[in-house]
Amino acid sequence: MQEERFPGHPFLPYLLILPSVAVIVIFLVVPFIQSARGSFFMTSAFGTRTIYVGLRNYIALFHSSYYLHSVLTTLIFAGFVIIIGLAISLAIGLLLNQKIRWQGFYQVALIWTYALSPAVAGTIWALMFAPATGIVPFVVARLFGGYVLNWMTDGQVALLVVSAAATWKMLGYNIIFFLAGLQNIPKELLEAARVDGAGPWRVFWKITFPMLSPTTTFLLFVNMLYAFFQVFGLIDIMTQGGPGNATNILVYKLYRDAFIYMNSGSADAQSVIIFIVIAAAAVVQLRVATRKAVYAR
Amino acid sequence: MKKVLVAGLALVLLVTMTTGLALADKVQITWWHAMSGPRLDVVNSIVAGFNASHPTIELKALYTGTYPETLTKFIAAYRSHNAPNIVQVYEVGTQTMLDSHAVTPVYQIPGMLGETWDWAQYVIPITHYYSTAGNLWSMPFNSSTAILYYNKDLFAKAGLDPNKPPTTWKEVEAYGQKLLASGVTKHVLSFGWPGWIFEQMFAYHNQLFANNNNGRTGLATQVLFNGAFGQMVLSTWTRLAKEGIFLYGGPEYSANQAFEAGQIAMLIQSTSSLAGIEQGSQFKVGTGFLPRFEGYPRGNSVIGGGSLWITKGQSKAQLEAVWEFLKYLAQTDVAVQWHKGTGYFPTVNSAVQELLTEGWFSKDQNYLTAFLQILSGRRDTPAATGVRLGPFVQIRELERTAIEQAVSGTMSPKAALDAAAQKANELLQQYKQVNG
């Protein structure tokens, strides 16, 4: 028998969580149901005509080479941002965690990218890589005998540049968390390992990395959400999905279909698919995280 | 503290009530537009002038974001019965607006108010673009077209006559080779709005871009841009890219930067960039007509920009106020002010005349180029008037993608255009299914 927390007020707990439930219902559940319903229709821009099309919006998506290409692009992009981004952040985090001169300066210098708005970050990178005036194509042309680096026409370069920009933008955030995680690792454990004769490499893999796993799992999840959804602004500023759809990741394609092309049925279907995929990924991650991550100390 | 608060609240209440009273006898109308930057100042000063000269009307102009954002907001507002009286829509949204059942065509407004209006006072190629079956549906407002910009200093350095821009694509190539050989630039030519420039080439040579007379006698159901003409255009551009003459500069206005920095010698771009380019460049800027392909018929360059649409279902008083504003925009001085402030075409003939007599064009001939181009072109064929497509935004992007794929060498021009056309035709069918 569980103890009653609010004796004499059986409905109080429900009343107290009502605001959060209301927010979730109004801003998440209701729009989701509307999207799910809309995905079975084709609608004219002004909503004056609506045709029931059953699953045709979904079927059309899976037959569309553009959509499948967008899925592939998203996976490459997210893979880059998550794996390379977290690896670099962890490496920088380890370096910053040492007792060095100017430590505070380095910490701020490496973290501040997170404080930039996507618009500013996107503009900086776009200017750096501008085909005729940017510094990077200039240096590349000098180094490689006049090679023209044009990310406005070269899709692979564009995807790489956007991925790099997105990774760079997220570095600050990741580093803060890794630093916090690293500083929470008890010094005694590290010292004990060193006394036992373990080298730095072994200490890292046997102690630091496992002890960091709660942080890593959390960052994995946050970075996945970032790579799938929050990079929207960066893509919009830098490439608008181009050239030739090379950087047209799912969330950007969804936005264009819904708000630029006025094709709401297809956009609804896409949002339902993204929702299902992300929800599944979240469940898997949380399962793995609770099983594998070392929370105890 | 409390007293101050109460007094403050009372004051706020009083002020809102009195302004409410003051406005009560004015007809209030709203206008949503997408003019930002220096254009916003011109819009605001025109609105202020209108309100000052029309004491019974209060026009509120609201910047509602980019063109697509403004259209999206308008649709949402219309569906929730909250729409503004006037909305500015970009030219690619024209078919969407025609099919919206949400607007009152401007040609009907004078009749509804018991007035007559002389539609011939507007510049014809512009009204043609926004007309259906000879009737004007939206009021031309900010109209532009594409012209060739070139760097006179670089031309001179390369031993070319700085007063002779290339007039054909063959000359563009020859000039380009000369500029490259002289070493004054690494690349020669770039475009803004690549898909739009591609469309320009069709109209400029009187070639149909889509069936059903460019979508002007019925909804277009098939694009024609992957035919022989389109392939020839894109093959030419691809060859220029291989020779290092053409440098693909990205969508919209991103190529302007390279031109203003003197990295390229020629730029094909909207006339609406003229003021910006002249201010941003350290060299003498020349302008010329779009280059032609020899041996093809003459058409005209296409109008771009936006127009004003009038929301359906307004009260008579509001419609009268809206009509007053549309008439105000057609006043010579207002049209002249708009042109001088932005570089967009003035939409009425009287303003063109006024600009000529006051010597505006002899001060800066570059402002004349676009006029001569559209006024010397033909205006009697749907092909020269420009294409009208339902899913136009999307199809223009498909064109851009095809251009990117061809000039970067990832696909042959024909394969890239065929792929784009196939997708475009699917979209046209879908559009017809929902809107037809």
The number of helical runs of chain B is: 21
**What's the CATH C level of the largest domain in chain B?**
Alpha Beta
- Based on secondary structure, the structural category of chain A is mainly alpha
The average pLDDT value of chain B, as a whole number, equals 92
Number of folding domains of chain A? 1
State the helicity of chain B in percent bands. 40-55%
What is CATH's topology name of chain A?
MetI-like fold
- Describe the oligomeric state of these chains in a short phrase: heterodimer
Strand content of chain B: 5-15%
Shape of chain B: globular
Radius of gyration of chain B: 24 Å
Mean pLDDT of chain A: 88
First CA to last CA of chain A: what distance? 31 Å
Q: Please give the order of strands in the largest beta sheet of chain A.
A: 1-2
Uncertain segments of chain B are: none
CATH class of chain A: Mainly Alpha
How is the main sheet of chain A built? 2 strands, antiparallel
Topology pattern of chain A, helix = H, strand = E:
HEEHHHHHHHHHHHH
Largest interface: A-B, 31 and 41 residues
From the N-terminal CA to the C-terminal CA of chain B, the straight-line distance is 65 Å
The main sheet of chain B comes to: 6 strands, mixed
Description:
Chain A has 297 residues and is mostly helical. Chain A has a single domain, classed as MetI-like (MetI-like fold, Orthogonal Bundle), CATH 1.10.3720.10. Chain A has helices at residues 12-38, 56-63, 65-96, 103-111, 118-128, 135-143, 155-183, 187-195, 200-211, 213-230, 232-238, 250-260, 264-292; strands spanning 41-43, 50-52. In chain A, helix 1 (12-38) packs across helix 13. Chain A is flat. Chain B has 436 residues and is α/β, with parallel strands linked by helices. Chain B has 2 domains: 26-144 and 304-358, Periplasmic binding protein-like II (D-Maltodextrin-Binding Protein, domain 2); 146-301 and 376-435, Periplasmic binding protein-like II (D-Maltodextrin-Binding Protein, domain 2, 3-Layer(aba) Sandwich). Helices cover 51% and strands 13% of the residues of chain B. Chain B is built from 21 helices and 12 strands. In chain B, strands 1, 2, 3, 4, 7 and 12 form a 6-stranded mixed sheet that branches. The longest helix of chain B is centred in the N-terminal third of the chain and has 23 residues, at 2-24. Chain B is globular. Chain B starts with a helix and ends with a helix.
